[in-house]
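chain below, 128 aa
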Amino acid sequence: MNLEKVVFGFFVLLAATLNFGFFIGDLSRPELHNIYELFAAVVVSLIATVLKFGDRTQLGAVHLATSLVADLQLVAAAIAWTYAAHISTEGVTAGSTAAVVSLSGGALVANTVSVVLLVVETVSFHRR
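prediction:
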């Protein structure tokens, strides 16, 4: 068993599941979307991105691209939530929650692509 592949797969899947956990729920209800789960999704996604830097293959480049897209979307979601909660005079409204969750949804699509690539790579692996 390759420990590096286990750690890589762990963080890719954890990033996707944390993102899914934040994403799921009614768009207009802030209480259904835990800010700490969004924070955890951002941190784990950034860790997964760092782990993808070492791969020099074409598939590795696509893995890195999907991870960068997810990072961008999640960081934008965190900034939008921070703005709504701490800067905006309206606070966290249904509209601001919808924007944050929508950005998280974009990251979820990128994470899903990354998980599919991981599964395809694993299935197509041939022992030598």
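The longest helix spans residues 58-87. The mean pLDDT is 92.
thats it, cya
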